[in-house]
Amino acid sequence: MLVAQVLLLAMQIKRDEKGRLLRMWTVGAISPFERVGSWCAQKVRGTWNGYFALRGAAKENEELRRELPSSGAHACRPRDCGERGHGESHHLY
Predict the structure, then answer these.
(1) How many structural domains does the chain have?
(2) SS3 of residue 73 by DSSP
(3) What confidence tens digit (pLDDT) does each residue in 38-48 have?
């Protein structure tokens, strides 16, 4: 009975422009859980989007590797080009 009276009083008491006391209690009790849920959803969304971005990059890399031999273009890694004497490594210093 005492709990019911406290709740009824909380519904009637207004605190400044913020609203009724019961609403403030409810928001105060629920908002930490809402923040945690929002944080978790944001992390899952970021991980999910990052995963598919990496899958897309891997697919693109594979397509480019297949195209490279057929294009006839000479591709070398920077360390390989320096070892083969293409003359690019001494221009960097």
Answers:
(1) 1
(2) coil
(3) 999 999 999 98
In a domain, 64, yes or no: yes
Q: Are 21 and 13 in contact (CB under 8 A)?
A: yes
pLDDT confidence tier of residue 93, bands split at 50, 70 and 90: very low
Angle CA(87)–CA(62)–CA(49) in degrees, nearest 5?
Answer: 115
Average pLDDT over the chain reads 77
Under the phi-then-psi rule, with left for phi > 0, alpha for psi from -120 to 50, and beta for the rest, what region is 15? beta
Residue 51 falls within a domain, yes or no?
yes
Could you tell me the residue range of the domain that residue 63 belongs to?
42-69
Rounded distance, CA 49 to CA 25, Å? 37
- Per-residue confidence band for 79, with pLDDT thresholds at 50, 70 and 90: low
Query: ∠ at Cα 11 (26, 31), nearest 5°?
Result: 10
Spatial separation of the C-alpha atoms in residues 39 and 32, rounded to whole Å: 11
Kindly state whether residue 56 falls inside one of the protein's structural domains.
yes
